[in-house]
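Deliverable D4.2, example record:
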Amino acid sequence: TGTWTLKGQVQLPDDRWAIDGTLLQLNGQLYYAWSGWKGGAEDRNQHIYLCRMRNPWTAEGPRVRLSSPDLDWEQIGELRVNEGPQFLVNGNRVFIVYSASHCSTDAYTLGMLSAPAGADLT
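Output generated by the structure prediction step:
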């Protein structure tokens, strides 16, 4: 019943390919996490990135790589993949649960990162 306003594409730092974005407000700061490429299309492995947000549609500051598919269980399939990050906050911890390995394999699985809730997540 409300009015929707198109704000356009979220312009992320470095303007690289990005999917699976998710937003978190923690301790008065907005953070945006996503899966994307390190470089251009020549490196199609997917990493988890994070940046601060001024508001839900405006990024500020650099992107920070939180995880890369470096572990054996994250490297099964055609591409090395960390994707689909989702924030969870429980008590004094912040978690990011993500998918790893290629989605076309039976090895598509979940990984988890964690940090203290009082930390600067960047």
